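We were asked to recover a plausible sequence for a given structure. The inputs and outputs are reproduced exactly as logged, with field labels preserved.

PROBLEM: sequence recovery
POSITIONS: 257
GIVEN STRUCTURE:
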C-alpha cells in the first residue's frame, strides 16, 4: 500500500482492501469485505458497513458545510453493500440530527454530493453529479437522475423516480415519476413498481389516488379527506396520505396545473 496513511485507532476488518494514497483517520470503522480505492479520504466519525465499494477520490465524513456547525461530535453512517463511485463527497451530520445516514445496497454515482444530516434509505440510485443539500430525506428504491439539484429539507418518497437535470424545491410523493420544469407529477413509476413486484391491482389503486390528488380540481386537504373516505386502508394508500400530511414544504404540482 504505497503512501497510504491509516490511523492505528481506526477499526478496520482484516478482510478490507485499501488502495494507494488513501487516508483513513481515527474513529473510523470499516466492515468485512469492503473495498477502498485509490486516493480516498475517510475522516473521523465515519462508519462503513460490510461489502461496500468506495471508488477513487471519494471523501467521506467531511465537516458539514453549514454555518451552525460548531465542531460538535457527529457521524456519517453508511450501511452494507453500497457502491460509492469516483469523487463522491458525503458530509457528517450537525447537532440537528447528529448524523448523516445511508442505508444498504445503494448506488451513488460519480461526483454526487450528499450534505449534512441527509437520510437515504435502501436500494436507491443517486445519479452522477446530483447535489443534495443538508437534511434531505429520500426513501427506499428512489432513483434520482443525474445533475439534479435538491433543496435543503426536501423529502423524496419511496419508489419515486426523478428525471435528469431536475430542480427539487418541494416534496416528491412516493411511487411517482417527477419531471419537467418546474418539477411536477408526470405519472406513476410504473416500470419500477412492476419490477419490485407490485400487482396491477395495487398499481391501479395508486394511480387512482394520484388522479384525485393531481388531476381533479380539488385542493390537497379536500383530496386527502376524499381518499380517506373512499379508499380502503392499504400500505400504499396510507404511505401516500402520511407522506403528504407530514410535508412542511408542500408537494410538487400535478401535470395538469
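RECOVERED SEQUENCE:
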Amino acid at each position: 500500500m504505497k503512501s497510504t496513511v491509516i490511523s492505528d485507532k481506526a477499526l478496520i476488518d482484516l478482510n478490507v482492501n485499501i488502495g494507494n494514497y488513501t487516508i483513513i483517520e481515527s474513529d473510523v470503522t470499516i466492515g468485512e469485505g469492503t473495498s477502498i480505492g485509490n486516493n480516498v479520504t475517510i475522516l473521523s466519525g465515519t462508519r462503513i458497513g460490510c461489502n461496500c465499494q468506495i471508488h477513487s477520490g471519494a471523501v467521506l465524513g467531511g465537516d458539514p458545510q453549514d454555518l451552525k456547525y460548531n465542531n460538535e461530535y457527529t457521524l456519517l453512517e453508511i450501511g452494507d453493500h453500497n457502491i460509492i463511485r469516483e469523487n463522491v463527497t458525503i458530509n457528517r451530520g450537525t447537532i440537528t440530527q447528529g448524523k448523516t445516514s445511508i442505508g444498504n445496497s445503494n448506488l451513488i454515482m460519480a461526483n454526487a454530493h450528499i450534505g449534512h444530516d441527509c437520510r437515504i434509505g435502501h436500494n436507491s440510485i443517486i445519479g452522477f453529479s446530483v447535489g443534495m443539500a443538508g437534511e434531505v430525506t429520500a426513501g427506499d428504491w428512489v432513483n434520482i437522475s443525474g445533475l439534479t439539484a435538491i433543496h435543503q429539507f426536501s423529502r423524496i418518497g419511496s419508489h419515486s423516480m426523478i428525471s435528469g437535470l431536475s430542480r427539487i424545491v418541494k416534496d416528491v410523493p412516493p411511487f411517482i415519476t417527477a419531471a419537467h420544469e418546474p418539477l411536477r407529477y408526470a405519472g406513476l413509476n410504473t416500470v419500477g413498481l412492476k419490477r419490485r413486484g407490485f400487482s396491477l391491482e395495487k398499481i391501479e389503486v395508486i394511480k387512482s389516488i394520484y388522479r384525485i390528488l393531481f388531476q381533479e380540481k380539488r385542493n390537497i386537504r379536500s383530496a386527502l379527506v376524499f381518499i380517506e373516505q373512499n379508499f380502503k386502508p392499504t400500505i400504499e394508500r396510507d404511505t401516500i396520505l402520511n407522506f403528504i400530511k407530514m410535508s412542511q414544504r408542500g408537494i410538487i404540482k400535478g401535470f395538469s396545473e
